[in-house]
Amino acid sequence: MKYEILATGSTGNCTIINGWVAIDMGIPYKKLKKHASGLRLVLLTHEHGDHFNRSTIRTLARERPALRFGCCEWLVNRLLILGVKKAQIDVYTPGKLTRYPGGALNVFPVETPHDVRNCAYKLSLAEPDGGTLFYATDCGSLDGIEAKGFDLYLVEANHTAAEMEIRAATKEARGEFAYERRAAENHLSWEQAVDWLAENMDTHSVWMPMHGHKEKEGGGTDGGTPYVRKDNCTV
Fold first, then answer.
1. CA 37, 43, 44, 49 torsion: positive or negative?
2. Do the Cβ atoms of 119 and 109 come closer than 8 Å?
C-alpha cells in the first residue's frame, strides 16, 4: 500500500492512498492540485475546516464532476451546499461495510467521539498495492473499537498527557484561557494511541502518528517516521 500525507495537523489534513483515494480534504487546492486528476474517491470524516476545506471541495466539485465523495450522513448537506451533486455522494452508515465494484475498495466507517460528529475508517484495498488501513484522527478515544492486524495505522497521537497538563496549568496560572483542556478531551493522546495500538497491531503492522500537537497554533506536521511493531506488547 502506498500513502502520501499531504498534511496532518491543525493547519490541514489530507492523505492520498495509492494515488486515487483521499482521506480528509482540509488543505488549499494549490497543495492538492498535482494529485487532483488521479483521485476517484474523497473520504471525509467531519466538518472542521482543517479536515473539510470548503473552497477545495467546491473546486473539486466544479472541476471533477465524476469524482465521488464518501461520508456519513452528517456531511451530506454540507457537500450539497458546496455544489457536489447528490449522485456523486456515497453515504456510509457507521458500523456497516460498503463494497465498491470489482473489489477495488471496502469501506467500514466507525463513529468516534469528538466535539462534532466524526468517524474513523477501516479500509481494504485490492491488489496491486493492496492492503488494510485504519485511519483515525480528531477522536477523544478509540475505546470499544477494534482493528486487529491491519497493515497500516494512520492514528492520531496528538499530545502526551504530561505536556498538555503542564501547558494548561501554566496558562491558567497566568489567568489565560487554556484551550489544552478542551483539546485533551477531543484528541487522542500518545498514551491512548500506544495502548490501543498494542492491542491491535500485528508484527507486520506499521503506525504513522497523525495530528501531532504543536505549541504554536496552526503548526501542523506533514508526517514523520513510521513506527513498526516489533513484538506482542510494544509499538
1. negative
2. yes
Contacts for 153 with CB less than 8 Å, ≥ 6 apart: 133, 134, 147, 197, 200, 201, 205, 206, 207, 208
The CATH number for 205's domain is: 3.60.15.10
In which domain, by residue range, is 59 found? 3-228
Overall size of the chain counted in residues: 235
Per-residue model confidence as pLDDT tens digits over 133-174: 999 999 999 999 999 999 999 999 987 866 766 665 676 677
Is residue 135 a part of any domain in this protein?
Answer: yes
Number of domain units in the chain: 1
Q: Is residue 233 part of a domain?
A: no
Report which DSSP code applies to 203.
T
pTM above 0.85, yes or no: yes
97 belongs to a structural domain: yes
What CA–CA distance (Å, rounded) separates 199 from 63?
43
What digits encode the pLDDT tens for the residues 71-107? 999 999 999 999 999 999 999 999 999 999 999 999 9
Residue 5 pairs in a beta bridge with 15
